[in-house]
C-alpha cells in the first residue's frame, strides 16, 4: 500500500477556494449576496435539491475574496491586485449534530485537557463564511446557538469555557434549507428565520442548464441541449408522482456516461430514471420523456 | 491567515454592555423592571418574535448599572458619577441544555479534576442579570434548577459539589417566552410561572418603529415611515395564513438593502416576504402589501 | 469585578435554617408532622402550587431542631436551652434526575477516583430532613431508590460501592406532589405511595393569607386584605379556564410593587393576571376581578 | 455537625438479617420456599402492594441461615447450634437499571482500572439470596441476564471480563412482581417466567393482620382488630374506584399515629384515605368506611 | 463470610461442556446440524419457550467436540480417542446489547488503553460455537454485525481497530428466535434471515418428555408419565387464553417438588399454573387439567 | 486451547480481494460500473436480498485492481502484468452507526490522545472502494457525512480535528439499498440519492442461477437446474404472502445439504421453506412448489 499516505489534508480554516468555481448567475443573487455580506446580514438560501446552493456559496466565497473596496461599484472583478482569501466552512447539518460539534470541546491530552475549537468557532475567529447546509435538520441546540451571531451582538458564547467570542469582521453566516421537506417537526422557528435575508433559488432555465451540463460533462452542445430539455420536462412530472425534480447534477452524470460511450437512453436510465425514483410507474413516465428526446 | 487571531473574547461575567443600547420605551416597562430589580422579583418577558425582548434586557442591564440610589426618582440618568457595571449573561434555552451546562461541571486537568462554573453559577456569584431566553425550550431539569433562586431562599444548590450558593445582591433572573408557540408539551408549569412578575411586550406602534428602523438602517425618514407601515400592515395578514407577524429586525434588513441601492420592492421581497414564509399564496399577499406601499 | 467573590456558599449538610421562618398553621399539620418525625414515618405533602409546601418543611426543620424531648407535650417551644440543628436538604425532582445524582458518584482525582456522596446519601448520614419536591417528576430509578429508606429497613443501598448505608436516627424523608398535574404517565405507583403518611395542604383562608401578604410585602393591612380577597376570588375562576388558582406568592409580588408606588391595578396586572395566564379571555376575567376590588 | 459520621454501613454481601423478622405465615409458603431453596428452583413472588413480599424474603433468608440439615423435617428451628448466615441482596428494579449496575463495571483507579462487582455478581459469589423486587420494571438486558442463572447452568457470564461465573451452592434467585400492574409493555416474557416456581401472596386474613398491626404499631388488641377490619373493608372498595387495596403498612402507620395520641379518624385519614388516593369521591368512600368503624 | 471466595470462574473461551448433556433427539436435527457445521452453514433455531434450544446447542457443542473425521459416517461416537473440545459461547440478546458488547472495546489501563475482545470476537478466534439466543431482541447494529460472518467471507470487521478478523475453521454461528413473539417491530429482516439454515423445534412427544422429566426430577416413571400428559393437555389450552404452552422445564420443577414431598396438585399449582399465567380464569382451566390427572 | 491464536487478521485498508470472485454478469453492469469508477461517479446498487450486491462489489474491486489503462477498451482482462490492488471497505449500515464510527475518534493512550481513523477515512486515504451496505439503515449524520465526498469537492471534513481530507484518486463510494424495505421513515432523501448513478439488480435468470448454484454447492447440473427452478417458482409466490423472494444463497444452502446426503425435499424444507417464513400457510405453499419439483 505504497500510495497510502498519498492524500491531501487542510486545517479547516485554511480551506480557501483556489480556482474560480464555474457559476452562471440566474438573476441578481450575486449583487444581493454582496450587499448582505458588506452589511453583515445573515443569508438564508431556499430551494430544492440540485439548484446549486453549495456551488453558489463557494462561488461567492471565491468572489468576495477579491479586494472588498471594489465589491459593490465594480462587479466584473477586473482589478485583481492583492487577492484576499476568505475561507469557507461548510457544515452539513443533521439531527445528531450537537452544539459541541460546532463550538468545540475539551480533549484530554497528557496532563492537561486541551480545548479544540469546533468549525463554527474557527469560522468566527478566522472571518470565514460559515455555511450550515440544511439547517432544519439540526438539533435545536445548534439552531439556538447561532442566534447571538445573527443579531447586532455578533457574539458566540462558549459556555463550557465561560467565554464570549466576538465575530471577526469578515464572518458571514449562510444557511440553506429545502422548503419541499418542510414539515411540522422540521420547520425553522420564526425566532430563527426572522434573522436572515432570504434568497429563493430555482433550477436554472434550459439554456443556462445546457451550458452547465456541457461544461461539466464534456458532451457536445447538441447533447447538452437535449439533456437540459430532459431536465425541464422531467420537472413537469410532479403530478405523475415525482416527488422532486431532477437536479442538474444527474444530467451531468448522464452526460459523463454518454461522453464515455454509453448509449444516451441507457445513460439516462441509470443516471436519471433509476436515480430519481424506485416507483416502476414513475420510472415508466420518466423513460417515456427520455425516449421522446433520444428517439 | 494573518488575521486569524484578530478577534476579541471576554470572560462571560465581564461581558458588560458598554454603550447605551438604542431603546425606545413603549409604556412603563422600564419603571416596572426597575422596581422588580430593586425588590428581587424575577421577571418573565412574554411576546412574539422581534418585539425586542433581548434589546430591552440589554438596555436595562446598562441602565441599572448606573448608581442605584438614583434609579427610581430620576429616570433620565443625567448624574453619571461613579458608573457601576452589571454584567449580562444571556442563555438561549433549548431542549438539550442540561443542568450541568448551567451550573457547572468537573473537568479533568492534569492530576486534578477542576470545577468550572456554568453561566448560571457565574451570574449568581457576579451579581449579574441572567437572561434565559425562550425558557419553555429548556429541559425540565433546567427549569427546576431556578426554583430555589426565585423564592425567598435565593440559593443555587450545586449537587455535584454538595454545595449551596447564595445569590449576590445584584443577581436578577429574567426569562422570556413566546406564548404563540405555547403547546401542551412546551408550556411553563404553574409551579414555575407563578415565580415571576410578567411583562407582555408587543410590536412597537408605527411611529416608534419608524424611528427605530431609521436609526438602525440609515434610510431616510420617509422610507422608514413606509417600512413601518409595511410592518403594521403585514401583521394584519394573520388571517391570510401568516403564522407570525414580521419583526422590526426584518424591516431594518430591508432598510439596509435599500440604503445600499437595492430597489425597495426587491429589498422587501428578500428581507420580508421570502424571509417570513415559504407559502406561495401567503407570499403573494405580502407582496401585494409591499406593492401597495412602494408603488 | 471587585465584588465577584462576594458570595456565600455552604456544604449542603450544613445548610440549617437559622431564623424562624414565618409560618402560620392552617390546622393540625404541625402536630401530625411532629408525630411522624418521632415515629420515623415518611411524609407526603399534597397540594397545588403556592400553598407553602416548601415553607412548611423549612419551618418544621427549624422547629424540630429544638430539644426533641420537649416536642410533643410542649408545643410553644419556650424552653430553648441547647438548640439542636437539623439540616434540610431540598431536591427539586425532574425527569433527568438520575439515581447517581441522589446517591453519589465517583470522580477522578489525580491518581484515584474519589467517591462524592449525593444529597440523599449526605442527608442519610447527617440525619437531615430530605425533601424531594415534586416527586412524580423524578425518573423511576429515583423513586425506587427511596423504597428501602421508607420501610422498617431504613437503609440506602449504594450499588456502585457495594455498600449498604443505615439511616441516621434523625433522618426523615418528605416528598411532595401536586395532584392537579397527576396523569397516567406521571402518577405515583402504589408501591411507592403506600409508604407515606399523607398531608393535603390547601390555600390558606383569607384572613390568614392577608396576614402573610402583609408580613412579606410590607403593604398596609387594608391593602393586604384586598389582595387576599383577590386571591380568594381568582381561585373561583377555575370554571372560566384558569387551570390553577393564584398562589400566595403572586399576591405578595403585587403587594411589593404597590409598596414601591406602582398603581394597584397595574401591579395586579403584571404580578397576577399576566403571570397566571396567556389566554386573553381568561386575562379579562381576572382583570374584572381586580377592577371590582380596586375600583 | 458532630454526629455527621454517626452512621453505619456494611459491605452488601455482609448484610445478614440478624434478628428474626416478625412474620406470620398465611399458608404453606415457608415449606414451598424451603424445598425450592434446597432444589435450586428460582422463585417468583406475585402479589399486590403491601402483602409483605420483602418481609417474607427477609424472613426466609434469616430462617434458611440455620443448619440446613434440619430445615425440612423440623420447622420450629429449635436446634440453633452453629448458625450459618445467608446474606440477602435486595435490588429494587427500575427501567434505568442497566446490566452493568447488576454485574459490575470497571473503575479507573490510579494507574489501573479496577473491576467492581455489581450486587448480582456479589450475590452469586457469596451464595446469597438475591431478591429482584418488581422485576417487570427492569430493562430487558437485566431480565435476560438472569436466564443462565435460572436453568441447569447456574452461571453468570460477565461479558466485559470475558468470564463465566458459576453460582455458589447457596445462591438463590427470587423475583417479585405485581400482576395488577401488568401491561402489554411491562409483562414478563414467557422465556423468563417459565424459569420460576410461582407463589401468589395475598393480603393476610383479618385475624392475622390484626396481630401484625398490634405487634408493629403498639396499639391495643381492640384497636388493631378495628384497623384490620378497616383494611378488609377498604379492599372491597375496588368497584368504587380504588385502584389497589390498602396494604398492611398503612394500617400500621395509622396505628402508630393513634398510639401517639392522634384521634383514630384523623389518623386513618392521613395514613389511609389521603395516602391511598387523590380522588375526592373515592376519599369520601374510604372515609365512610373509617367512620363506620370508629364511630 | 469464609466461603466468599468459594466460587468457580472460567475465561469465556475455555467454557467447554465437559459432561454429555442429557438430550433425546426428536427427529433428524442432530444429523442436519452436523452437516451444517461441516459445511459452515449458519443455523437458525426456531421454536417456543421450553423446547430445549439451549440444551440442543450444548449437546451439539459436546458431540461435535469428538473427532471430526468420524462425525458423519459414524454417529454413535463410540471411537473416543483424542477428544477435541469446542467451546460454546452463549449470548442472550436484548435490546441494549451493543455492537461493542459483542466485538470488544478499549479499556484504559495505566498508561495505555488495552483492547478487550468481546464474546463474538473471542468465539471467532477460538473456533467456538457462538449461540445468539433470541436474536430478534438484539439491536440492529448487533444483527448487522453478523452478516459478514454468515456469507462466504466469514470475517468480522472490528471497526474501532481498523481490523478484519477471519473466522477460525471451527467457528459456527447459531441463532434462535421464537416466532410466537414475532411482531412488526421485532422481526428478522430478510437480509438477515436468508443467511441461515432453519430448524423448527417443537415440544417433545409425550413419551420422550416423560423420560426427560423422570431423568431430571427424579420422580417415578408413573409420575413422569402423568406430568408429561399434563404438559400435552395444557398445550391444548391455547384457545382458552393460554398465550404459550408449558415448557418441559416447568414440568421438571413440578417433579422436583413432588419428589421432595409436596402434594402433586399443590406442586403443579405453583410450578405450572401460577408460573404460566396471572389470569384467574385461565388458571382455573389449567387447574382443571391438573385435577383430571391427579385425582 | 492451543489453537486459540490460530486466526488471521488484516488492517482494514489491506483487505484486498486476492482471488477472482465467481461472478456471472446479468447485463452491462460491469461496463457501467467501470465507467462510473473512471469518472468518479458514486454508485447506488438497488435490489432485493440475495441478488448478489456484495458479491458484485467484490468482483468489481478485484477486476478494477488490474491496470486501469486497460479497463474500458479491453474487458477480458487478459493482460495481467503489474497487478494494482484496490482495497475494499465494506460497512454494514445500521441505525446505531455514528459519524465517529465512520470518520474516526480520539483514543486515550498513555500521556496523549491518539486519533484513530474510522473505515471511511481509511478508505478515503487509501483510495479504496468503500461500500456502505443498506445505506437507508444509517443514521442521518452518517448519510450527510458522505455528501461532500459525492460531489465535485470529493472531501471528507473531520470536524473533531478541524481538518479537511481530500479523497485519493482511486476512492470510490458505493452504496446499496433494498427498495422493498422503503418506508416513510427509512427513505433516501433526494439531497442524498441525487448524488448517485443507480444500478437496479435483480435475481439472475434461471440458467445463470443454475450455474451459480452448481459452482457454489457442488451438486450435479441436473440438481442445480431443479434448484434454480425452485427459486424462480418461489419468487412467484409473492401473492401468496411471501414478502420477499428466495435469494440465491438459500438455494446454494439446499444444494450443499443435498451434496452431503440430505434428501432434497428435507434439504429444501430447512434451507428454503423454514428459512423464508414462519407462516404455516405460506410454508405449505412453498413446500408444494418443492414437492412439484422433487417428486
Automatic annotation (TrEMBL), chains A, B, C, D, E, F:
Signal peptide: none
Organism annotation: Geodia barretti
Presence of keyword Transit peptide: no
Keywords, in A-Z order: ATP-binding, Nucleotide-binding
Record has ATP-binding as a keyword: yes
One MF term in the entry's GO annotations: ATP hydrolysis activity
Family, similarity comment: Belongs to the CbbQ/NirQ/NorQ/GpvN family.
Domain ATPase dynein-related AAA stretches: 42-196
Protein name: Protein CbbQ
Domain (CbbQ/NirQ/NorQ C-terminal): residue spans on this chain: 209-292
Amino acid at each position: 500500500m505504497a500510495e497510502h499516505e498519498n492524500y491531501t489534508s487542510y486545517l479547516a480554516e485554511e480551506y480557501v477556494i483556489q480556482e474560480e468555481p464555474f457559476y452562471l448567475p440566474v438573476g441578481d443573487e450575486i449583487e444581493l449576496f454582496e450587499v448582505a455580506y458588506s452589511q453583515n446580514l445573515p443569508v438564508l438560501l431556499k430551494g430544492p435539491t440540485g439548484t446549486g446552493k453549495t456551488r453558489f456559496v463557494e462561488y461567492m466565497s471565491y468572489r468576495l475574496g477579491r479586494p472588498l473596496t471594489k465589491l459593490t461599484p465594480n462587479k466584473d472583478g477586473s482589478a485583481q491586485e492583492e487577492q484576499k482569501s476568505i475561507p469557507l466552512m461548510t457544515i452539513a447539518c443533521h439531527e445528531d449534530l450537537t452544539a459541541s460539534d460546532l463550538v468545540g470541546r475539551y480533549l484530554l491530552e497528557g496532563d492537561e485537557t486541551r480545548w479544540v475549537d469546533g468549525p463554527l468557532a474557527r469560522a468566527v475567529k478566522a472571518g470565514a463564511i460559515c455555511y450550515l447546509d440544511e439547517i432544519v435538520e439540526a438539533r435545536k441546540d445548534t439552531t439556538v446557538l447561532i442566534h447571538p451571531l445573527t443579531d447586532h451582538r455578533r457574539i458566540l458564547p462558549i459556555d463550557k469555557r465561560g467565554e464570549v467570542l466576538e465575530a471577526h469582521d469578515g464572518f458571514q453566516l449562510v444557511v440553506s434549507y429545502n422548503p419541499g421537506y418542510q414539515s411540522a417537526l422540521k420547520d425553522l422557528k420564526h425566532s430563527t428565520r426572522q434573522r436572515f435575508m432570504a434568497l429563493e433559488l430555482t433550477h436554472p432555465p434550459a439554456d443556462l442548464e445546457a451550458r452547465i451540463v456541457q461544461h461539466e460533462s464534456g458532451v457536445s452542445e447538441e447533447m447538452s441541449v437535449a439533456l437540459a430539455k430532459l431536465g425541464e420536462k422531467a420537472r413537469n412530472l410532479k403530478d405523475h408522482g415525482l416527488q422532486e425534480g431532477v437536479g442538474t447534477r444527474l444530467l451531468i452524470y448522464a452526460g459523463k456516461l454518454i461522453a464515455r460511450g454509453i448509449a444516451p437512453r441507457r445513460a439516462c436510465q441509470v443516471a436519471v430514471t433509476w436515480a430519481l425514483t424506485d416507483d416502476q410507474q414513475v420510472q415508466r413516465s420518466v423513460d417515456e420523456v427520455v425516449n421522446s428526446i433520444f428517439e
